[in-house]
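During the reporting period, our protein records have gained a C-alpha coordinate line. One record among many is quoted in full directly below:
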Amino acid sequence: MRRFLVVSDVMTKDVVTVTEDTPFKAVAAVLAEHHISAVPVRAATGRITGVVSETDLLYKEEKRRPNVLHPKARAKADAVTAGQLMTSPAVTIEGGRTLDEAARLMAARGITRLVVMDGDALAGIVTRSDLLSAFLASDQEILSCIHSDVVERHLWDEPQAVKVEVQDGVVTLTGHVERRSAVELVTLLVEDVDGVVAVRNKLTWRTDDTNRSRGGIFY
Protein backbone atom coordinates (compact mmCIF):
# COMPACT_ATOMS: atom_id res chain seq x y z
CA MET A 1 0.00 0.00 0.00
CA ARG A 2 1.37 3.42 -0.93
CA ARG A 3 2.34 5.63 1.98
CA PHE A 4 1.21 9.22 1.66
CA LEU A 5 3.56 12.02 2.62
CA VAL A 6 3.43 12.95 6.29
CA VAL A 7 4.92 15.83 8.26
CA SER A 8 8.16 13.96 9.04
CA ASP A 9 8.80 13.53 5.30
CA VAL A 10 8.99 17.26 4.63
CA MET A 11 10.07 18.85 7.93
CA THR A 12 13.48 20.32 8.71
CA LYS A 13 15.14 17.87 11.09
CA ASP A 14 18.23 19.82 12.16
CA VAL A 15 16.56 22.39 14.37
CA VAL A 16 18.40 25.23 16.05
CA THR A 17 17.05 26.13 19.49
CA VAL A 18 17.69 28.74 22.16
CA THR A 19 17.14 28.63 25.90
CA GLU A 20 14.73 30.76 27.87
CA ASP A 21 17.59 32.91 29.19
CA THR A 22 19.17 33.55 25.78
CA PRO A 23 19.57 37.35 25.41
CA PHE A 24 17.55 39.31 22.85
CA LYS A 25 20.54 40.10 20.64
CA ALA A 26 21.72 36.49 20.70
CA VAL A 27 18.30 35.34 19.50
CA ALA A 28 18.43 37.87 16.64
CA ALA A 29 21.91 36.63 15.75
CA VAL A 30 20.73 33.01 15.62
CA LEU A 31 17.92 33.88 13.23
CA ALA A 32 20.27 35.86 10.98
CA GLU A 33 23.09 33.30 11.03
CA HIS A 34 20.86 30.36 10.13
CA HIS A 35 18.56 32.30 7.76
CA ILE A 36 15.44 31.24 9.65
CA SER A 37 12.37 33.21 10.72
CA ALA A 38 11.72 31.54 14.08
CA VAL A 39 13.42 29.41 16.69
CA PRO A 40 12.03 27.05 19.37
CA VAL A 41 12.80 27.86 23.00
CA ARG A 42 13.92 25.22 25.50
CA ALA A 43 13.47 25.30 29.26
CA ALA A 44 16.31 24.26 31.55
CA THR A 45 14.78 20.78 31.60
CA GLY A 46 15.02 20.57 27.79
CA ARG A 47 11.26 20.83 27.26
CA ILE A 48 10.10 23.05 24.38
CA THR A 49 8.22 25.92 26.00
CA GLY A 50 7.65 28.33 23.12
CA VAL A 51 8.81 29.88 19.87
CA VAL A 52 10.44 33.22 19.13
CA SER A 53 9.78 34.61 15.66
CA GLU A 54 11.02 37.64 13.76
CA THR A 55 7.67 39.26 14.53
CA ASP A 56 8.34 38.92 18.26
CA LEU A 57 11.70 40.67 17.84
CA LEU A 58 10.27 43.48 15.75
CA TYR A 59 8.01 44.63 18.57
CA LYS A 60 11.17 46.27 19.91
CA GLU A 61 11.10 48.63 16.93
CA GLU A 62 7.45 49.49 17.59
CA LYS A 63 8.34 50.45 21.15
CA ARG A 64 8.99 53.92 19.80
CA ARG A 65 5.24 54.18 19.20
CA PRO A 66 3.86 52.94 22.55
CA ASN A 67 0.33 54.12 21.88
CA VAL A 68 -0.15 51.55 19.10
CA LEU A 69 0.99 48.55 21.17
CA HIS A 70 -1.49 46.32 22.99
CA PRO A 71 -0.35 45.02 26.43
CA LYS A 72 1.04 41.70 25.16
CA ALA A 73 2.97 43.43 22.41
CA ARG A 74 4.28 46.00 24.88
CA ALA A 75 5.58 43.17 27.08
CA LYS A 76 7.44 41.70 24.11
CA ALA A 77 8.82 45.14 23.24
CA ASP A 78 10.30 45.34 26.74
CA ALA A 79 11.67 41.77 26.63
CA VAL A 80 15.38 41.11 27.01
CA THR A 81 15.44 37.28 26.88
CA ALA A 82 13.95 34.55 24.72
CA GLY A 83 11.70 33.47 27.58
CA GLN A 84 10.15 36.93 27.71
CA LEU A 85 9.94 37.21 23.92
CA MET A 86 8.50 33.82 23.05
CA THR A 87 4.97 32.91 22.13
CA SER A 88 3.96 30.14 24.51
CA PRO A 89 3.00 27.37 24.42
CA ALA A 90 4.47 26.32 21.09
CA VAL A 91 1.94 24.94 18.61
CA THR A 92 3.07 21.39 17.95
CA ILE A 93 2.24 18.43 15.74
CA GLU A 94 3.37 14.80 15.59
CA GLY A 95 5.56 13.77 12.69
CA GLY A 96 3.14 11.07 11.57
CA ARG A 97 0.33 13.53 10.86
CA THR A 98 -0.66 14.19 7.26
CA LEU A 99 0.22 17.38 5.40
CA ASP A 100 -3.40 18.46 5.18
CA GLU A 101 -3.73 18.13 8.97
CA ALA A 102 -0.68 20.36 9.37
CA ALA A 103 -2.09 22.88 6.90
CA ARG A 104 -5.44 23.01 8.72
CA LEU A 105 -3.72 23.53 12.08
CA MET A 106 -1.60 26.37 10.70
CA ALA A 107 -4.67 28.02 9.19
CA ALA A 108 -6.69 27.65 12.38
CA ARG A 109 -3.92 29.20 14.50
CA GLY A 110 -2.92 31.83 11.94
CA ILE A 111 0.73 30.73 11.92
CA THR A 112 3.24 29.67 9.27
CA ARG A 113 5.18 26.96 11.12
CA LEU A 114 4.70 24.11 13.59
CA VAL A 115 7.08 22.48 16.04
CA VAL A 116 7.20 18.77 15.25
CA MET A 117 7.40 16.43 18.22
CA ASP A 118 8.17 12.76 18.67
CA GLY A 119 6.53 12.17 22.01
CA ASP A 120 8.26 14.65 24.33
CA ALA A 121 11.29 15.05 22.06
CA LEU A 122 11.78 17.76 19.46
CA ALA A 123 11.84 16.15 16.01
CA GLY A 124 11.81 19.11 13.64
CA ILE A 125 10.12 22.19 12.28
CA VAL A 126 7.61 22.23 9.43
CA THR A 127 6.71 25.44 7.61
CA ARG A 128 3.92 26.36 5.25
CA SER A 129 6.34 26.23 2.31
CA ASP A 130 7.39 22.70 3.32
CA LEU A 131 3.81 21.55 2.84
CA LEU A 132 4.04 22.46 -0.83
CA SER A 133 6.45 19.53 -1.27
CA ALA A 134 3.45 17.32 -1.96
CA PHE A 135 2.85 19.21 -5.20
CA LEU A 136 6.42 18.76 -6.49
CA ALA A 137 5.75 15.24 -7.74
CA SER A 138 6.12 15.02 -11.53
CA ASP A 139 3.21 14.13 -13.77
CA GLN A 140 4.89 10.78 -14.46
CA GLU A 141 5.20 10.03 -10.73
CA ILE A 142 1.54 10.91 -10.20
CA LEU A 143 0.52 8.74 -13.15
CA SER A 144 2.52 5.79 -11.83
CA CYS A 145 0.96 6.09 -8.37
CA ILE A 146 -2.56 6.29 -9.76
CA HIS A 147 -2.04 3.19 -11.89
CA SER A 148 -0.45 1.08 -9.15
CA ASP A 149 -2.32 2.27 -6.07
CA VAL A 150 -5.74 3.18 -7.40
CA VAL A 151 -6.58 1.60 -10.75
CA GLU A 152 -4.83 -1.76 -10.36
CA ARG A 153 -5.63 -2.10 -6.66
CA HIS A 154 -9.27 -1.02 -6.67
CA LEU A 155 -10.29 -1.82 -10.24
CA TRP A 156 -8.36 -5.09 -10.37
CA ASP A 157 -11.13 -6.79 -12.35
CA GLU A 158 -11.10 -4.18 -15.14
CA PRO A 159 -7.94 -2.00 -14.90
CA GLN A 160 -7.70 -1.66 -18.68
CA ALA A 161 -11.10 0.02 -18.76
CA VAL A 162 -9.70 3.25 -17.28
CA LYS A 163 -7.39 5.64 -19.11
CA VAL A 164 -5.46 8.11 -16.97
CA GLU A 165 -3.83 11.31 -18.23
CA VAL A 166 -1.93 13.82 -16.07
CA GLN A 167 -1.05 17.36 -17.14
CA ASP A 168 0.46 19.80 -14.63
CA GLY A 169 -1.03 17.78 -11.79
CA VAL A 170 -4.54 17.78 -13.27
CA VAL A 171 -5.79 14.22 -13.72
CA THR A 172 -8.28 13.25 -16.44
CA LEU A 173 -10.00 9.87 -16.17
CA THR A 174 -11.80 8.39 -19.16
CA GLY A 175 -13.26 4.97 -19.90
CA HIS A 176 -16.25 2.77 -19.20
CA VAL A 177 -16.56 0.66 -16.03
CA GLU A 178 -19.16 -1.73 -14.70
CA ARG A 179 -20.44 0.08 -11.58
CA ARG A 180 -21.17 3.71 -10.78
CA SER A 181 -19.92 3.22 -7.20
CA ALA A 182 -16.49 2.36 -8.62
CA VAL A 183 -16.42 5.69 -10.44
CA GLU A 184 -17.04 7.61 -7.23
CA LEU A 185 -14.48 5.57 -5.30
CA VAL A 186 -11.79 6.15 -7.91
CA THR A 187 -12.44 9.89 -7.83
CA LEU A 188 -11.92 10.07 -4.07
CA LEU A 189 -8.79 7.91 -4.17
CA VAL A 190 -7.19 9.88 -7.00
CA GLU A 191 -7.87 13.18 -5.22
CA ASP A 192 -5.84 11.83 -2.28
CA VAL A 193 -2.74 11.05 -4.35
CA ASP A 194 0.14 13.38 -3.46
CA GLY A 195 0.66 16.01 -6.13
CA VAL A 196 -2.83 15.89 -7.64
CA VAL A 197 -4.18 19.39 -8.21
CA ALA A 198 -7.61 18.45 -9.58
CA VAL A 199 -9.51 15.48 -11.01
CA ARG A 200 -11.62 15.59 -14.17
CA ASN A 201 -13.60 12.38 -14.06
CA LYS A 202 -15.18 11.50 -17.39
CA LEU A 203 -15.72 7.84 -16.61
CA THR A 204 -19.02 6.26 -17.64
CA TRP A 205 -20.67 3.21 -16.10
CA ARG A 206 -22.93 0.32 -17.14
CA THR A 207 -24.82 -0.32 -13.89
CA ASP A 208 -25.99 2.26 -11.39
CA ASP A 209 -25.62 0.50 -8.03
CA THR A 210 -26.10 3.72 -6.05
CA ASN A 211 -29.91 3.92 -6.42
CA ARG A 212 -29.66 7.05 -8.53
CA SER A 213 -30.43 7.71 -12.17
CA ARG A 214 -29.42 5.00 -14.64
CA GLY A 215 -26.36 5.39 -16.81
CA GLY A 216 -24.41 8.53 -17.63
CA ILE A 217 -21.21 10.32 -16.74
CA PHE A 218 -20.07 11.20 -13.23
CA TYR A 219 -18.27 14.52 -12.73
About this structure: The helical segments are 7-10, 24-34, 54-62, 71-77, 82-85, 99-109, 139-154, 180-191.
